[in-house]
Amino acid sequence: MSKFVLCAPLLLALVSLGQGQKLAATPPMGWNSWNHFACKVTAADVRAAADAIASNGMKDAGYTYVNIDDCWQGKRDAQGNIQANERFGDMKALAEYVHSKGLKIGIYSSPGPKTCAGYEGSYQHEKQDAKQYAAWGFDYLKYDWCSAEKVYKPSQMPEVYKKMHDALAATGRPIVFSLCQYGLTRVWRWGGSAGGNLWRTTDDISDNYDRMSVIGFAQNGLERFAGPGHWNDPDMLEIGNGHMSHDEYVTHMSLWSLLAAPLLAGNDLSKVSPADLAILTNKEVIAVDQDSKGVQGRRVAEEGPLEVWAKPLADGSYAVGLFNRGQSANPVTLQFTGIGIHRAVKVRDLWAHRDLGSFTSSYTATVPRHGAVMLKVK
Ligand code: GLA
User: Fold this and answer.
1) Which letter does DSSP use for residue 281 in this model?
2) Taking 70 as the threshold, does the pLDDT of residue 20 lie above it?
3) Mean pLDDT of 161-186
4) Is the CB of 117 under 6 A from ligand 1?
5) Labelling 293: which of 113, 139, 149, 151 has CA 20 to 30 A away?
C-alpha cells in the first residue's frame, strides 16, 4: 500500500505525459480554409475538402485535419452559446460528415471579443465555447490573438492561452490547440507550457516566393523549441494557389518538411492539379516531416543564395535540403562533414524516388532557380 502511495504521482505523471504525446506527436497534417477561401468559406467548401482528401491520396499520405478558419461564426443565443452563421448552419452535422470520411475537423476562434475578420470571439465565453466545440465534435482549435490586444496586455498572453487550453482539457475531448499570435513575445519559449501543440512563429504567409522563403528560411535557430506534441508553425501551405512556380512550391514543401512544420494545405482541393497534388503527397518527403524523432532541421551551410539544411531522422540517417534562392540554376554541395559524417554514405533523391549511389565526402546537385533538391543520406 505504502509503495502504491509513493508511486501514484509518478504513475499519474506518466499517464498524462503519454496522453499529451499522443496529441500532435508528429506535426499536424491536414487542410485549412483560409489561404484560398478566406471569409467566403462555406460548409459546402469544407465538405468538398474532406471529400477530396479522402479520395485523392492525401488521406493515405497522412492528411487528417479539415480545419475551418475565420468567418464561420454567427451570433450568440440568449444563453450566450455561440452559433454558426448561415453559410455553415449545423456544425454537428458538418463534424459528423468529416468524421464519416475517417478525418478530423478543426475550428477557429480568438481570445478577444472579435476575430481578425470581425466575427464573434471567445472573450469571457472560453469555457462555454470549449464545451460547444467538444459537443459539436471538433478535434482542433486555432486561437488567433487579433482583438485580444484591446483587452489584454502582451505579457498576459501565456495565461490567456492557458485559460483556453484548460477549458479544452476540461471537456475530456482530445483537441489539438494551435496558438496564433504571429510569434509575439517569443511564443516558442512559453507556447508549450501554455498548452499549445503548435504556435505560429511569424506573421501571415502569402502565395509568393519572397514571402514564403523569407518566413521559411528565417526559422533557423528555433529548432530547440520544437518536438513531439509542441511544434513551431511557420504558417499554412500555399501550394496549389497558383502564384508560385513548380520549383518554388517544391522549395515550400521541402523546407516545411525539414522544419517539421505542420503541413496544412491551403488550396482549393476540389480543383488541385496533378502536379500540385504530387508535391503535396510525396510520401518520402512527408516522412521527413513526420519522422518520429521529431527534430526540427536547421541550416548547416550557406553561400550567398545557396543553402544546405539538414534534419536528423529516427533511423540514424539525415534528410538534407539543397536550396537555391538565386536567380539562375547553380550547383549546391553538401559536405558530409557539415552533418558530422566522415565516411562513405548512400544518397537517395526523395523527390525523384531514386538511389543515387555511394559518395565519400560530398554530394553536389544542380538546383534550379528558387528550387530545391531533397536527399536522404544514410
Ligand atoms: C490572421 C491569421 C490568419 C487567418 C486570419 C483570419 O491573419 O494569422 O492565419 O486566421 O487571421 O482572419
Assistant:
1) T
2) no
3) 98
4) yes
5) 139
Residue 95, H or E segment: helix 91-100
Any atom of ligand 1 within 6 Å of the Cβ of 166? no
Residue nearest to atom 9 of ligand 1 (CA): 204
Residue 297 DSSP label: P
Confidence band of 8 (pLDDT split at 50, 70, 90): very low
Q: What angle do CA 262, 118, 148 make, to 5 degrees?
A: 70
Catalytic residue among 69, 70, 144, 289: 144
Local structure of 346: helix, strand or coil: strand
Mean pLDDT of 63-69: 99
Residue 215 vs residues 33, 176, 296, 371: alpha-carbon distances, Å: 20, 23, 15, 16
SS3 content of the chain, % helix, strand, coil (to 5): 35, 25, 40
Spot the catalytic one: 51, 166, 204, 349.
Answer: 204
Other C-beta atoms within 10 Å of 38: how many? 12
Report CA(68)–ligand 1 centroid distance (Å).
Answer: 11
Strand 29-32, strand 263-265: pairing:
parallel
What pTM did the predictor assign?
0.94
Residue 103 CB partners (closer than 8 Å, separation 6+): 30, 50, 53, 54, 59, 64, 65, 66
Q: Which of 59, 72, 71, 69 is nearest to 99 (CA)?
A: 59
Per the CB < 8 A criterion, the answer to whether 339 and 310 are in contact is: yes
* Atom of ligand 1 at shortest range from CA of 115: 12
Residue bearing cell 483560409: 34
1 pLDDT exceeds 60? no
State whether the beta carbon of 149 lies less than 6 angstroms from ligand 1: no
Written as one letter, the residue type at 300 is V
Largest alpha-carbon pair distance within the chain?
A: 72
Cβ proximity of 297 and 377 under 8 Å? no
Choice among 16-25, 172-181, 280-289, 357-366 with the minimum mean pLDDT: 16-25
Number of Cβ within a 10 Å radius of residue 272: 20
CB of 233 within 6 A of ligand 1: the answer is no
- Residue ranges and CATH numbers for the domains of the chain are 8-289 (3.20.20.70), 298-377 (2.60.40.1180)
Q: Point out the ligand 1 atom lying closest to the alpha carbon of residue 203.
A: 8
171 DSSP 8-state letter:
T
